[in-house]
Amino acid sequence: MRPLIATLESGQTIEYLPEIIGEGGMKVVHFTPDRSCVVCFFKDKSTANDPQRRHRLQAIVGKYNPTSDPNTGNYWQKLFCWPTDIVVAPELGVVAPTYAANFFFASGPFQGKEKQGNWFTSPKLRKMLPEAERGTWLQYLQICIRVARALRRMHNAGLAHSDLSNKNVLVDPTTGGAVIIDIDSLVVPQLYPPDVLGTPGYIAPEVLGTQNLELEDERRVLPSRRTDQHALAVLIYEYLLGRHPLRGPKVNSISSPEEDERLSMGPKALWIEDKDTSNRPGGVWLSHEILGPYLAPLMELAFTVGLHAPDERPGADEWERALVRTTDLLLPCANAACAQKWFVLTGTSPRCPFCGEKVRGSVPLLNFYRAGRPGQFVTEKHRLAIWHHQRLYRWHIFDNAFAGENADRTPLGYFALQNGVWWLVNQSGETMFAPAPIPSGEGLELKDGVQLQLSRAAHGRLAVVQMIS
Amino acid sequence: MKIFTRGQRSRLDALTPSSQLTIGLSIAAPSHVELDYGCFGVDDANFLADERYFVFYNQPRSPNDSIALQGAGAGDDERFGVNLEALPDDVRRLVFTATIDGVGTMMQIARGHLRVLVGDVEIVRYEFFGTDFHSEQALLIAEIYWKDTWRFGAIGQGFAGDLRTLLRHFGGVEEEVSQPVAQPAPVVPPRQPPPVQAPPVHTPSPPTSPPVPLVSSTAPPPPTFPVAPGVGESLQSLVDAAPAGSTLALLRGEYQGPLIINKALHLDGRKAVIWAHQGPVVTVAAPGVTLRDMEIEVTVPEDAQGDGDIALLADEQSVPQLQNVVVRGRLCGLGEDGEWKLPATLDLGAFAPRGENSFLVHLAVPVACRLNSAVAGLTCSPDELSPGEHDIELRVQGVSADTLIAGRLEVRSAHVVRAIALTGGTVGGGEPVNGKRLW
After folding, report:
1. Which of A96, A311, B138, B174 is least enclosed, having the fewest CB within 10 Å?
2. Is A464 helix (H, G, I), strand (E, B) or coil?
3. In A, residues 12-71, which contact B (CB 8 Å cutoff)?
4. Is there a cis peptide before residue A193, judged by omega within 30 degrees of 0?
5. B134 and A458: CB-CB below 8 Å?
6. Residue B294 to residue B250: CA distance in whole angstroms
7. What is the three-class DSSP state of A160?
């Protein structure tokens, strides 16, 4: 089939295939002949003629585009399907990169379909997927980190997604990858209001509660960064706990399912783990407390106070930090048959919450202290759970390093269990002290109470070994 | 493509047979931080003998285009083209630098890189981050230098000063000019550097055309340039190669000994640490040696036999000058022989937060010393010690709860500082400690 020609705003042209490969409420989508990009046309011609929409697209493709940053652009290209050009003929539209191949099912009954999050968060749908596609709990945590980081980047630039949901986030649990799509609907401040209210299940309660008011009514609440924060909290809850945080047995209206949905997700929204147990599902299920000491408080904030008070919601940066810190508390499950394979250490009697398997043997923890006054180190109330072949990184050794998009991921040490003895091998290039020197290339046997200075450089941490069993 | 870390070095012929290279530089910095990139072509003494081999925005080419500024390239803010075969014999080191013009410090940068390309193929990459630096305004990023063959080394050293200061460091001075750069100016003949004991391999040749009026040489002592051992090299090999009477400055870092210095040498550690499992870690076997600004440590257990616990050893005719040298281990031959009874470590254990705690240690010193605590809230009484044995009271107070101590007690004699590691803390501490004997 002969490709058609579209004209870009710059005057250049681009070829696209006539076949429509996808269609949503706003756009139809075509591949380019090499399938590296998609050309999307807006269906509604009246909005296509709206100059404000054009200005918004120019802002999105231009100054707000994080993938064009010469230093971090490569990183953001993996997290966003960001439009790269504006199409002006034959219709208004955008050019965007194609999703990477790993975001399509490679095998099983849904081969070729996009990996939307609901495939993996719904227990019923998940059972239909091949084992190889399901991933482990570690990959879901990585997915959450990527989504939170991408949203943080967006919010830092003053943008709001406005329609964050499991349909607009493709995930790959085999690698922990995630990509946010539908970027052309972003809310650009002072420039263009949102096109849509969001997706059911992810729309913030205050948006649903005011959706029947006129657009000009100042009481009407429209999507914004605050509503993105609600959607992000719902997504993280779904990815990590496998269920929706607000869908429980409580019925808020008997007049119609639509009215019940509007109330249950809107003004009457109630967390299924709230102290008010009227919306609590029956049966056995896992509490948010298994998420550990950093994520559990954020969940409580997001779904109690923050549910109906948008200003109280945790920001994307808070979620990102808590998720990253939670990775330091991960332990592998000793049960080879456990589907989740990883869990968060909570308390000092570690047991996998997914299969009940207890941790075998002793587990070392490093309790971190950061430099205060000269010669003094104060507790950070943060710890690193150690497992065989766990790595030590720069953000463990220095209190001013963070495992963000710019992080140096060179391992600076590793831990090993050998003949029942736990070791740390120093690979940092500098001597550590316990207090005897441990030069680079040498090892330290981990024993309870050992005080280990990870670096004597500025911001170098002190760690105290704690053995639990 | 080979990734280099700070201090790493390699022969260039192990990376590429080509002598025509492109050096690409890029630094990500806040918008208010303006960066200039430069290349200094210096001689064996790290001296800019011919100012035409300082290539930067105002002098984009050296003679014969041996070094040429190429502007921005794909992925690089600035590129230098280098033709090693076109360099004169006396230019033995090309140092690639970045300097901040105006306000800003290098700790504000996000990250940067220097890479070496042959054609379009990247063969070396060295990356660095703002967290590697502090308040410096310049960076010595990497160098290509001659030592039997051409070699590449990643430096990654901050430099306190701007472009003018960096120029002076290499022996040049910026002149005031009232005319645009492109105008010719009177010839300023380069000043010959002071002679060193090891003669240069090649004699410098006079300039054949008027230099660009930017720099003229002054009368400096030869600048010292921090170095570190390359791949397959040791600190000993660096010392052996240094000319007698010269100054060898080390890049800050850790160096495994043992080290034997058998010639006059000024060794400037710049807070480097020289260590070994067994002593003597450093042996001074010649007069005229100065050791400055370094730590010398032996990691052997306290009950080691023989000379295993010696950190620094000097014979009678070879007592070195020591300036700001901290030692963990025994010293021999510095005129401070005698009975030293000092522990390697003092563990205060758990003590009460906020209140006052006291501990006792018994020390013996053969010479007059002063005790200095590098831990906030810890004092020693007495802190001035005459030769002999002493009961010292250590008082710790005002330490918050859940706080650990990791510092040192310094015993300062006339020549050297001996360090005693201190540990302990208020984690789990209960009642105040009163007069607990530690050692």
Report:
1. A311
2. strand
3. 70-71
4. no
5. yes
6. 10
7. strand
CA atoms of B51 and A130, how far apart (whole Å): 69
User: Tens place of pLDDT for every residue, chain A, 469 residues?
Assistant: 788 999 998 889 999 999 888 777 778 889 899 888 999 998 877 766 777 778 888 888 888 888 888 778 888 888 998 998 999 989 889 999 888 888 888 777 777 788 888 788 777 777 788 888 888 999 999 999 999 999 999 998 888 888 898 888 999 999 999 999 888 777 876 666 666 777 889 999 998 888 888 877 888 888 889 999 999 999 999 999 989 999 999 999 999 988 899 899 999 999 999 999 999 998 878 899 999 999 999 999 999 999 999 999 999 999 999 999 999 999 999 999 998 999 999 876 688 999 999 888 889 999 999 998 889 999 999 999 999 999 999 999 999 898 988 788 899 999 999 999 999 999 998 889 887 888 888 899 999 999 999 998 889 999 999 998 7
Cα dihedral sign, A107-A109-A112-A118: negative
Contacts of A464 in chain B (CB under 8 A): 404, 427
Tokens, residue B246: 């010269």
Q: What is the pLDDT of residues B184-201, one digit of tens each?
A: 333 333 333 333 333 333
Neighbours of A465 (CB within 10 A): 21
Min Cα distance A370 → chain B (Å) is 9
The reply to whether B108 touches chain A by the CB within 8 Å rule is no
Q: Are B408 and B317 spatial neighbours (Cβ–Cβ below 8 Å)?
A: no
pLDDT-flagged residues of chain B (< 50): 175-223
> Which residue from A458, A438, A441 is spatially nearest to A450, judged by alpha carbons?
A438
Pairing mode of beta strands B76-83, B172-174: unpaired
Buried residues in A71-101 as b, exposed as e (16+ CB within 10 A): bbeebbbebbbbbbbbbbeebbbbbbbbbee
- Residue B380: CA atoms inside 13 Å, Cβ hemisphere, count? 22
Closest CA of chain B from A354, distance in Å: 34
What amino acid is encoded at B380 in this protein? C
For residue B78, give the amino acid letter.
Answer: E
Chain center to CA of A108: 26
pTM for the model stands at 0.69
In this prediction, residue A195 carries a pLDDT of: 67
Encoded tokens for A126: 């998940």
Helix (H) or strand (E) holding A167: none
Contacts of B402 (CB under 8 A, 6+ apart): A378, A379, B353, B426, B427
Q: Which long-range contacts (CB under 8 A, 24 or more apart) does A450-453 make?
A: A451/B404, A451/B406, A451/B423, A451/B425, A452/A366, A452/A424, A453/B406
What ipTM was predicted for this assembly?
0.71
C-alpha–C-alpha distance, residues A201 and A179, integer Å = 20
Place of tokens 């830092």: A156
Surface of B (346-405) touching A: CB under 8 A: 373-378, 399-400, 402-405
Taking the C-alpha atoms of residue B32 and residue A256, their distance in angstroms, rounded to an integer, is 59
Asked whether the CA dihedral A428, A432, A437, A442 is positive or negative, the reply is: negative
Q: Number of residue pairs across A and B with CB atoms under 8 Å?
A: 90
Distance between CA atoms of residues A158 and B228, nearest Å: 46
The residue assigned the tokens 């010269």 is: B246
Cα nearest neighbour of A441 on chain B: B256
DSSP assignment, residue A359? P
What values do phi and psi take at B80, rounded to 5? Answer: -115, 135
